[in-house]
Amino acid sequence: MHLLDPQDPHTVLNGERVCEAIAHLPDAETLHDWATRFALLADHTRLALLLCIHHAREICVSDLAAATGVKDSTVSQALRLLRAHGVVGTRRDGRAIHYHLTDDERLRALLDCLPGAHDEPAHPGSRDHGLVQS
Length: 134
Known about the structure:
It contains 6 helices and 3 strands; from the N terminus they run αααβααββα.
């Protein structure tokens, strides 16, 4: 299938590869959704929280703060954003609210691919994950 516009001013060295690349681009809405998802993951605190939630399966704010070495208020703020984007959900147990990943298998698979996700911690017992207190 030829997907190149003959009026396109770009210099093309390999039209076949350009067509292959174009054929595999998602629609604009899907591309935007993934860009938003990667933006959520681009913050090291949010990424650390997501990894903790992913591996703990369900965890409360104070436990997330302890696991990441980040203040409770910072954890809560990050979780509000993740919840607003539908990445995490909650379950109330008395006064405690437990967070879990939503049923997004693509996000789970992505988190599973991160280096060290299944390895032993580099420094057992260490709370210094390079996270900045806010």
